[in-house]
Design a protein that fits this description.
The structure holds two protein chains of two kinds.
Chain A (H helix, E strand, L loop, with lengths): L10 H9 L16 H9 L2 E14 L11 E2 L1 H25 L3 E11 L6 E13 L14 E2 L4 H9 L2 E14 L5 H6 L5 E2 L1 H24 L4 E10 L7 E13 L15 E3 L3
Parallel strand pairs in A: 3-5
Antiparallel strand pairs in A: 1-4, 2-6, 3-4, 6-9, 8-9
Helix pairs in contact in A: 2-4
Chain B lengths: L4 H4 L3 H16 L6 H12 L4 E2 L4 H9 L2 E14 L4 H22 L4 E8 L8 E13 L9 E2 L4 H9 L2 E16 L16 H22 L5 E14 L7 E15 L10 E3 L29
Parallel strand pairs in B: 3-5
Antiparallel strand pairs in B: 2-4, 3-4, 6-8, 7-8
The chains are: A alpha+beta, B alpha+beta.
Chain lengths: ~280, ~300
Amino acid sequence: MIDGSTAPIPEFARRRIAEGAGSRSAAAVFTSDLSVNEFLLIRKAGFEPVGLCVGTCVYHVGIQYGNWNKNQELTVLSQAMYQARELAMARMREEATAMGADGIVGVKLTIKRVEFDSNLLEFIAFGTGVVHGKGHRGFRAHDGGPFTSDLSGQDFFSLLHAGYRPIEMVMGSCVYHVAHRNLLATMRSIGQNVELENFTSAMYDAREIAIERMQHEAAAAQAEGVVGVDMHEGSHGWQSHVIEFFAIGTAVSPIGEEIAPDKIADPIMVLSVND
Amino acid sequence: MGIFDAFKRRNPDAAELQRQAELGTMLHGGPLPVHMTERLTAARSGTAPWVSTLTPSEMRVVRSHGIRPISSIAATCWMHYGWSWTLGHAEGWNTALRRLKREAIEAGANAVLDVKMRTVPLAVENSMDFTLVGTAVYIEGMKPSGNPIVATVPALEFVKLLEADVVPTGIAVGAHYAWMTDWQGTATMAWMGNIEARALSQLLESVRRTAYADLRRNAQGQGNGVLAHINFSEILERENEQGPKAYLARHIVVATTVDAGPAVPMHHEITMALDMRGPSTPLTGTTPHHQSYATNDDEGAI
């Protein structure tokens, strides 16, 4: 596509243009939020989009206060954040199953606050269901249902080419209360550059718990590894010292056998002239 | 997996206290907590899934170069700045960098890729958290290193650099600040026409130059050069009840250090390509590499 700029417009495309829109009017219309490049690459990888899948969960998050001077996980909130996302994701996956999709690509997971109640959070999971063009079912997740993945179409294509397939979007959540400093410690540090060790270890503790949980989920999905991991830190209208660490990524497994490094095609070095 | 399975494994009280005690020991130079070491070792040996912040295309490139991911790792130093905000920042990043390397060694890695600077959005009394996150990897056929490479560039750029015999080695910080008391009132320029504020120019210029000299000093021993960096600078005015106004200028620069071999042209042929994706091109890196200095974000990835 990149170097074929001098090729003429193919015959079938000319015919389509001449016939006008809607002439192929398939019985089923697919919906998707794919970009042009994503669409082309997903088809190149042997998949076809079937439809948008969405799962919603409006969740009332319980109340839990941290001890003023204690570093601790707020398990009520951790569980709420995890369960609500899990519900939204499961509903999205159900819709995909109903469509007969083999997987969902480009999943976006968002959280919205509701104006009239500060304890209500809306969780939305949203992605494009795809099927394998030749009806190959080997791409399904470990439990036989559709795989889920937050990978874009481009990433999905590269992943398959690296000899891996996505299994499941895995996540780990930890809502943590960071201890307040006592007055004496605050007084002592006036005018000094010092590390606040309590805060540092709170960050370590919370992050480690989130990652551990995510990794645990990946192991449960029989994955070899997790790609594209990102750690989000967010505060969803809680007290000032409460923060959520949320780890998310796509668990992957090799397709058949792992490709040896020297068998992976060398990428072409491209120097972008855009910027 | 059941929704609550992940929560069952933690015995709330005793285990929690134990973890925190071990974390405290680590911050004073002691060993890493047992649960962290166990997790890293499991990811390294393949008994637990590896964890990587790299995208699939990055994974593909690093794998074809014999690099394997172990786990995403992170290091934090939460600093309270009392006497100097500026130097507090430098110390915060440097401490986090030391800790990141220790964790990488513990994971059996010889490099950390895709290192990003992060700060959590909790504003606490004159303090900030300095966090570095990245993916610990090992390069097949090389021994785990006692001084792992810390590459702030995304994996694609890391490989690009390696191919050109350039090794990104670490992070160097330069920081300086100075106060100027404006005895003559030269910086108060109401009613004047077009005129340079010389005193302020000089203040900022000398602060910047000293910060860059500091960067150079800091980079020595890590490599023989630095690449793209983040600049953060600001000037603040303080009014005094009975004295003249005072001005504080500060400058922080954070850069990637590289160890470059003698200039040999890359053995690849270079294809010029126009990438139709525009600004979101996957060719020049992935996510923003820091969100710690929001106002000075236009300098590019570090």
